[in-house]
Each structure stands twice: as structure tokens, then as C-alpha cells.
Amino acid sequence: MAVLETLTPPKEGQRIEIRDNHLQVPDHPIVPFIEGDGTGPDIWRASQRIFDAAVKGAYGGKKRLVWFEVYAGEKAHSTYGNWLPEDTLRAFQHYVVGIKGPLTTPIGGGFRSLNVSLRQLLDLYACVRPVRWFEGVPSPVKHPEWVDVVIFRENSEDIYVGLEHPSGSPEAKKLIEFVRREFNWKVRDDAGVGLKPMSAFGTKRLVRKALRYAVDRHRKSVTIVHKGNIMKYTEGAFAKWGYELAREEFGGQTVTWDEVQKSYGGKAPAGKVLIQDYIADVTFQHLLTRPRDLDVIATGNLNGDYISDAVAAQVGGIGMAPGANLSDFHAIFEATHGTAPKYANLDKVNPGSLTLSGVMMLEYLGWNEAASLIVRGLEKTFKQKVVTYDLARLMDGAKEVKTSEFASAVIDNMG
Ligand code: NAP
Which residue in the list 293, 305, 309, 328 is annotated as catalytic? Predict the structure, then answer.
């Protein structure tokens, strides 16, 4: 590792390594974390206690997470005068797997976004969001228990790459002139213009990750979600390349919807993952009306952004949705909500998003027993209607507790 200039790594513990195309996880892995701004410290303290209790409960003293605090956001700014010190990036790169709370996005220019910097440095091309319902959690739909999806959103391409020029700028004018001259495209003089790149490389590595996940975890299906009926050579190509990848690399483990209809009487054979595709707009309807038809979703950057938030709302919303940004091996797990600054230091908000992100992290490390303990603890706690303010205000007969009390209840309920 490039030398850390301002941070001292823990003396104990070892680094997670990438060897022979596999993650090598020691029994005492060093895990960098950022507690986050605003309510970050509250939810971090609660979640960290839950993680440590689960690992202890699952493995006695044999395995342990060795936490290494690194800094970004307000804490970094007040300590180092820098919103994002180089050491933080180096630590995440070196230790391979890390976790973070929410960070303030400072208003005005002159700073780098941690998420963008990490995404670029570590090539975190897949944003993964599992969304499931926990019994007892209030939901706006009749059957939230039907929702159990994992969204793999491509993170490095599509219109989010920022290749755009404002209306009236010399660059926009030049681009408009070029496409009119070369392609006979009709674009208004005063249009803002942008590029929507979607490549075979970018699509295939995302779909590969989604399919690997589905096969390893015996999920039912992978649905490629796209808007290819309108944007044929970007969104449509995404679907085409997705099927290609499934055929080339997962031929023996997958079956297409067409094959199921023609050869299997409409039902996918046991042990095979169904691969199908849906148009993005219809997907929103299906997620609401028959979410059981959707399982793992592989989709582009923009579609994935919308779908992730929409489906999270169906199972209880913002305090509960976990997330991860992944490359082939590097992984950063994170709360998906913001810093909710008005509640900072009140020991009030729901730690669920960060806690469930930790569950994803434990599963990523292969520590499934510890992950299951946390899920069990959460399930039981929600069933008892022991919840933080956000859920208590939507539930009849709830017992409203503080963030720290919620964590204690989850730990007690791990059983
Ligand atoms: P926010 O922090 O997500 O908060 C919006 C509302 O969501 C809160 O007022 C609260 O609702 C609810 N909420 C958020 N976290 C919750 C939790 N843990 N438990 C229960 N309810 C929770 O969004 P924001 O106010 O727009 O953004 C605040 C700051 O966060 C900004 O600086 C923004 O840039 C930053 N941000 C960071 C990230 C990130 O680092 N990943 C993501 C998004 C935003 P009620 O008011 O109804 O109680």
C-alpha cells in the first residue's frame, strides 16, 4: 500500500486479500469504516454493536472484525481541513472491503465526492440493493411480503457519466453542428446535449455479477430491465448483451423465457435460473402488482436509480434500504439515506439501512452465520413492534425506542 500519511492502521488483524481470483478473508480482517455525518455516528454506534455481537454469537472468539476508522465529510474537514483525505481512499483500496455511513454533500464547488472518487478509483461498477420486507414494518402496499428483489444497477455508464453540455454553450453548438452535418440528426439550436454510452463490456460485467449471485444463491430468475423498445442501440443492446453473456458463460445454469414456454410447459426446470427481460415502464407496474415475478434485476444506471428507490418505498422506505458498491472484488457497503441532520446526536433515527448493509458485508465475506443472526434479530424486533420513531409513527401499538435501544433489542433477539 502507498504509505498512510495521517492514519495508523490497527496493530492487530490482517488485510483481506485478492488471491487467485478469490477473496481471502482472514479470521480477523481489518475493515475500514466511515461513521458518517449528521445521524451517522448514532447509526454507526448502534450498527457496530450489532455486527460485533453477531460475529461473537456466530463464531465465539474465533472470528472478529477489526475496525479501522477512516475519515471523510465533516469529521475529515474539521480534523484535516480536507473533505476527503487521500488516506481514506488508500485505505479502502488496500483493505478491499469497507463500510460507510451517510456523508454531507457540501454546497458549492471545490470538493470531491467520496462516492464518485471511490467509484472511479476502485472501479465500483455495480450498485447492489437487496429489498425485502420485514414482518411488522408498515408498508403502503397490500402484500409487502411479496417483495424480495435484488437490484444490480450498472454504475459506470449511461447518461450518469456526465458527458453533457449546457444549452447555448460553444461546446453544445459544436456538437449539434457535428451531428447535424454527419448524421443528419435533428436537434434544436437551444438544446442542452449529452451522450448516453452503454457498452458490451460494461453491460456484460454487470450481468455476470447478477447471474453469479443468482446461481450461487439459488435465486429463481434474473430479469434484464431496459428501455430497448425506444433506445435500441443503448438500452436494447444492454438486453442483447445480457442474453449473450448468459448464453456464453451460464448456458448450463440458465434457461430463457422462450425456452421455458417452448420446452418446459411454462415452468422453469428445477436448478436453473430463468433469464428474461422486461421493459422499464412495465417493470414499475409489475413491482407494484405482481412483485413475485421479479427476483434478481440487472439494469442500467438510470433505470436502476429509479427502481431501487421505488421498490424500497414498498417495504418501509428510506431508513431500511441497504446498499453496496462493488467492483470485481473491492466492495463498499453503505446506508442509502442521507445524514438527516435535524436528528443528529438525538439517538433517534433508524439504523436499519446501515445494519442491513453490514449484513450484506458479512455475506460478502462469507460469514453467513453472523449475517443470519442479525436478520433473525431484526425480524423478531420488528415483530415485537419495537421500532424507532419513523416506523412507530406509522404503526398501531408500537413501542418507540431510541437508536441505541433498538440495537440492544436486536442483539437480545438474535437468540
Ligand atoms: P436525508 O438525510 O436522507 O433525510 C430525509 C428524511 O428521510 C429525514 O428527514 C427523515 O424523514 C428520513 N430519514 C433519513 N434517514 C433516516 C433514518 N436513518 N431513519 C429514519 N428516517 C430517516 O435527506 P436530505 O435531508 O435530503 O439530505 C441531508 C444530507 O445528506 C445532505 O447533505 C445530502 O447531500 C446528504 N446525503 C448523503 C447521502 C449519502 O452519503 N449516501 C445520500 C443522500 C443524501 P422525516 O423528516 O420524515 O423524519
Answer: 305
